[in-house]
Amino acid sequence: xxxxxxxxxxxxxxxxxxxxxxxxxxxxxxxxxxxxxxxxxxxxxxxxxxxxxxxxxxxxxxxxxxxxxxxxxxxxxxxxxxxxxxxxxxxxxxxxxxxxxxxxxxxxxxx
Length: 111
What we know:
Blueprint lengths: L2 H13 L21 E6 L3 E9 L3 E12 L13 E11 L3 E7 L8
Antiparallel strand pairs: 1-2, 1-5, 2-3, 3-4
């Protein structure tokens, strides 16, 4: 965070204003599409869901699943993903992302 961002943040907290600090960035300097479905591998686990919002450091997914095992992962056919746990909404720190793949649909809930 540079000095100007820090000044803006402090002024916003003092005046209880500045909606842009809490508004999701739906456009910006990233390749992601709000509303698209993604499979995200991070340094410790994988998750999949529908992208709800994106911020400078975080991505928010809805209809998300924690993916324990992808088996032999196939980008074109994600139906092989059998071991997952539906969690609803998740926030992922963008610094922990290894790769992101757009998929056709979110994964089915574990029965």
